[in-house]
Specification:
Oligomer: single chain
Shape: elongated
Helix content: 40-55%
Structural class: alpha+beta
Number of strands: 23
Mean pLDDT: 79
Distance between the termini: 5 Å
Strand order of the largest sheet: 12-11-14-7-6-16-19-18
Low-confidence stretches: 132-136, 138-168, 243-257, 354-362, 368-372
Largest sheet: 8 strands, mixed
Strand content: 25-35%
Number of helices: 13
Radius of gyration: 35 Å
Length: 534
C-alpha cells in the first residue's frame, strides 16, 4: 500500500509539472497578444500623432560673430577666422503654465485595440524681465526697419559700430539681428497642433506660423514674429547694457530707461493633441505648472513628481514647481544654441512604448560629430502618462501567478477525499479536472479583450466551476462531496480575484491566504495515520 500511495503522489506531482509547462506556453500567448496590441498602437501613433513633449517657449535671436584677428609675430601676417552665426536665447523670468487635458480611449481604434488619446488646452503666461534676461547678449546690435528708435539711439549705434571697426584687428565683433528675433514654441510632434496657437504680446494678438527657414537644428516648433515695439525694447536694452556705448548713446539712455525697464508680458494659447503621455520641459527662472485632467489613473513620470496632487471621481489635479530643473535646462539649451553655425542640435521626443511603463522623457543635447566639443546631458522634464485601468494582459498575467496553487488545491482536495472517504479517483480524472482549470485562462484572455476584465473573470470562472462541479458529482459519487468541492473551488476563484484587485496589498494578502490554506489542510489532516492510510 505504501508503494501505491507513493505512485499516486508521483502521478499528481507529474500532472502538476505538466500543467506548469502548459501555463508557461500560455504565457507566451499573452506576450504575443500584447506585442500585437503594442504594434497596433504604434501604427496608430505613426499615422496620427505621437506622445507629446513641449518645451517652455523662449525668445531666440540670431547673432553673427566675427572672431578677432591675430597678428602672426613671425610672418607679420594677420589671420582672421571666418565669421559664424549662433543663437542667443532669452528665457522668461516668470512662467505660469496650465494644462487642461480631456483624455479618451475611443478616438483612435483598430478592431479591439485602442490608443489612449488626449486633447489639451495649454496656456503659458510669461513675463520677460529685460534687465536680467538680456545681459548675456551680444555687445553690438544690428537693427533694420525699426522705425521706433530715436535719432539719438541710431547715432549711438552707428558710433559703436565705427569704434568696433577701428578695433577689428584686436577684438571680435558680435552683431545681434534683432529684426529676426522670434518667439519659439517647441512641440515634439506638430501634427498634434490642429490650429496654430494664438499669442498675446503686450496686449497685441499675433498668430504663430510655421518657420520658413528653421534657425534651430533638429527641433520642431512654431514661431511668432515679435512686434516692432518689442524688438525696439529688446535692442534698446541691449544697447544700454553694451560696454561699447558712446556719449551719444549715453545721452539717449535717459530717454529710453522707462521703456526698457517695462517687462514684456506674453499669453500663449496652444491647442495640442497626442496619445499616451504629455511631458513638459521647464525653462526660465520661475516656472509653475498646473495640470487638470478627467483621467483618474495617472502615472506621473519624469525627473520631478508633483508638489501637490489630488484625485476625485472626475479626474486629477497636479502642480509642479522645481527651480533646479529649470536652471539646468537653461544652461543646457544656452550652451547648445550658442555653438557655431548651429552645429549642436536639440533632439526633442517623448518616450513611446505602448503598453509598457514610461520612464522619464528625454531631450538629448548632442553635438554633430567632429564639429564642436561634445555637449553631454539631457533636459529635465516631467509630466504624466495615462495608464490603462483595465490592462487585460497585465491582469491576466497576474492571475496566472496563482494558477499552480489553484491546481494544487484542487488535486489536494481530491486526494484528501481518497484518503479520508476512501474514494477511488483515477489519474485520468485528475487530468481532466486539471485541463478544465487550465481552460479557465484560455477563456479569460479573449473574453477580457472584448469586455471588462471583471466580467470576463466572472464568466470564465463560472463556466469552469460549473463544469468541474458537475463532473465531480460523478467522480466522487456523492452530491454532498461534489457541493463541498465546488464551494471550495468557487471560493478560491473569488479569493484570487479579491487579491488581484487590491494592488497595494496583493502580496500581503496572497501570503496570508497561503498561510490560512496551509493551516486548514493541516487541521483537516491532523488525525490521519498516514502509515495506516498507505
Amino acid at each position: 500500500m505504501q508503494k501505491t500511495l507513493t505512485i499516486k503522489l508521483c502521478i499528481i506531482a507529474g500532472l502538476c509539472i505538466i500543467f506548469a509547462i502548459g501555463l508557461t506556453m500560455f504565457s507566451s500567448v499573452i506576450y504575443e497578444r500584447q506585442s500585437y496590441a503594442d504594434s497596433v498602437i504604434a501604427e496608430i501613433a505613426e499615422q496620427h500623432v505621437y506622445p507629446q513633449q513641449v518645451i517652455t517657449p523662449f525668445i531666440a535671436i540670431p547673432t553673427t560673430i566675427t572672431p578677432e584677428c591675430l597678428l602672426d609675430a613671425e610672418t607679420q601676417s594677420v589671420k582672421c577666422a571666418a565669421p559664424y552665426t549662433k543663437i542667443d536665447a532669452i528665457f522668461a523670468a516668470q512662467t505660469q503654465a496650465s494644462q487642461n487635458l480631456l483624455v479618451d480611449t475611443d478616438t483612435y481604434k483598430r478592431s479591439i485595440y485602442h490608443a489612449t488619446s488626449y486633447n489639451s488646452e495649454l496656456q503659458f503666461k510669461q513675463r520677460y524681465s529685460l534687465p536680467e534676461s538680456s545681459s548675456n547678449l551680444s555687445d553690438s546690435s544690428k537693427l533694420s526697419d525699426l522705425s521706433e528708435l530715436s535719432k539719438q539711439d541710431q547715432q549711438g549705434i552707428a558710433t559703436a559700430a565705427v569704434t568696433a571697426d577701428k578695433n577689428a584687428l584686436r577684438s571680435s565683433q558680435a552683431v545681434s539681428h534683432w529684426e529676426q528675433a522670434k518667439l519659439i514654441i517647441p512641440v515634439s510632434d506638430l501634427r498634434g497642433v490642429a490650429t496654430l496657437p494664438t499669442v498675446v504680446i503686450n496686449k497685441q494678438t499675433i498668430k504663430a506660423t510655421y518657420p520658413q527657414n528653421s534657425m534651430l537644428k533638429g527641433l520642431s516648433y512654431v514661431e511668432v514674429a515679435l512686434p516692432d515695439t518689442v524688438l525696439t525694447q529688446l535692442a534698446t536694452q541691449n544697447l544700454a547694457n553694451s560696454p561699447t556705448q558712446t556719449a551719444a548713446s549715453n545721452s539717449s539712455k535717459t530717454s529710453t530707461v522707462e521703456n526698457k525697464n517695462q517687462p514684456i508680458d506674453m499669453l500663449i494659447d496652444l491647442p495640442l493633441a497626442g496619445i499616451s503621455s504629455l511631458n513638459t520641459v521647464p525653462t526660465g527662472q520661475n516656472f509653475e505648472l498646473t495640470m487638470l485632467s478627467n483621467w483618474d489613473t495617472p502615472n506621473f513620470i519624469g525627473k520631478a513628481l508633483p508638489n501637490t496632487k489630488s484625485f476625485s471621481a472626475d479626474g486629477f489635479k497636479a502642480n509642479w514647481q522645481n527651480q533646479y530643473l529649470t536652471v539646468a535646462n537653461n544652461q543646457y539649451l544656452s550652451q547648445c544654441l550658442s555653438t557655431a553655425n548651429n552645429q549642436c542640435q536639440v533632439i526633442s521626443s517623448a518616450p513611446f512604448a505602448a503598453g509598457s511603463s514610461y520612464d522619464e522623457a528625454t531631450i538629448a543635447v548632442e553635438a554633430a560629430a567632429g564639429s564642436v566639443d561634445s555637449i553631454n546631458g539631457s533636459l529635465n522634464s516631467f509630466g504624466v502618462s495615462f495608464a490603462e485601468p483595465n490592462d487585460v494582459y497585465l491582469q491576466t498575467e497576474r492571475t496566472m501567478k496563482y494558477a499552480l496553487l489553484l491546481i494544487l488545491v484542487s488535486f489536494g482536495t481530491f486526494f484528501l477525499f481518497e484518503i479520508i472517504k476512501s474514494s477511488r479517483i483515477h489519474p485520468i480524472q485528475y487530468l481532466l479536472v486539471g485541463c478544465a482549470l487550465l481552460v479557465f485562462y484560455v477563456l479569460l484572455l479573449p473574453l477580457a479583450e472584448q469586455i471588462a476584465f471583471w466580467q470576463a473573470y466572472a464568466i470564465a470562472a463560472s463556466a469552469c466551476v460549473g463544469l468541474i462541479g458537475w463532473y465531480s458529482y460523478y467522480v466522487l459519487d456523492s452530491l454532498k462531496r461534489a457541493v463541498i468541492f465546488t464551494a471550495i473551488l468557487a471560493g478560491l476563484y473569488a479569493a484570487f480575484y479579491g487579491i488581484l484587485t487590491t494592488e497595494d496589498l496583493n502580496l500581503l494578502l496572497g501570503a496570508v491566504f497561503c498561510f490560512v490554506l496551509l493551516a486548514c489542510v493541516m487541521i483537516m489532516t491532523r488525525k490521519i495515520d498516514w502509515y495506516k492510510a498507505a
